[in-house]
Amino acid sequence: MPELLRFDAVVAAPFAHIGVRLADGEVAETVYLPASFRAQAPRSVLAREVVRQIRAYLRDPAHVFELPLAERGSEFQRRVWSEISAIPNGHTLSYGDVARRIRSGPRAVGGACGANWFSLLIPCHRVLAANGLGGFGDASSGAFHLDIKRWLLAHEGIAVK
């Protein structure tokens, strides 16, 4: 199997699947996958813990992730992701809100959201456009990622258009 398609676990979720990659005792990446991917049992103790915490969130959106995340991205991206990680469950901020908090611009914040290595664990779904849902994930994926964003927000009790 090509390395790009190898995961340490694949978790079934109501909206699709979540692939988990680990490296050096840390979570290296989590990605949203189409339902056509098959669920895969965790391959290690850490993978089991990641799966346990993802399932805990899927049962209860108040779950707070406590996992070792690999240091990924630029310094700016990590600043954005840190700010986004502080958004409580059931709340949202606009790209402009996040930008003001870190003294940047909304488009740069959007770019950092799109580069998020830790889907779900760093809740970029809680960042909205000033006038609606905004983007989410890979722009080439069409409605796939936006449908996930809608599901996650609804799961957290947030109504969006």
Describe the 3D structure.
- This protein is α+β, with helices and mostly antiparallel strands and 161 residues long.
- It has 2 domains: 57 residues, no CATH class; 81 residues, Winged helix-like DNA-binding domain superfamily/Winged helix DNA-binding domain (Arc Repressor Mutant, subunit A), CATH 1.10.10.10.
- 35% of the residues lie in helices and 16% in strands.
- The protein has 5 helices and 5 strands.
- Strands 1-2-3 form a 3-stranded antiparallel sheet, covered by helices on one side. The protein has a two-stranded parallel ribbon with strand order 4-5.
- The radius of gyration is 15 Å and the shape is globular.
- 31% of the residues are buried.
Brief descriptors of the model:
161 residues; alpha+beta; Arc Repressor Mutant, subunit A; two-stranded parallel sheet; 5 helices
Output the CATH class name of the largest domain.
Mainly Alpha
Q: What class, by secondary structure content?
A: alpha+beta
Low-confidence stretches: none
Biggest pleated sheet: 3 strands, antiparallel
Number of helices: 5
**Helicity level, as a percent range?**
25-40%
Gyration radius from CA atoms, angstroms: 15 Å
Count of structural domains? 2
Would you list the SSEs in sequence order as H and E? Answer: EEEHHEHHEH
Mean pLDDT over the residues: 91
Euclidean distance between termini CA atoms: 40 Å
Strand order of the largest sheet: 1-2-3
The name of the CATH architecture of the largest domain is Orthogonal Bundle
Fold-level CATH name of the largest domain: Arc Repressor Mutant, subunit A
Strand elements, count: 5
Shape call? globular
Oligomeric state of the chains present here: single chain
Q: Could you name the CATH homologous superfamily of the largest domain? A: Winged helix-like DNA-binding domain superfamily/Winged helix DNA-binding domain
Strand portion = 15-25%
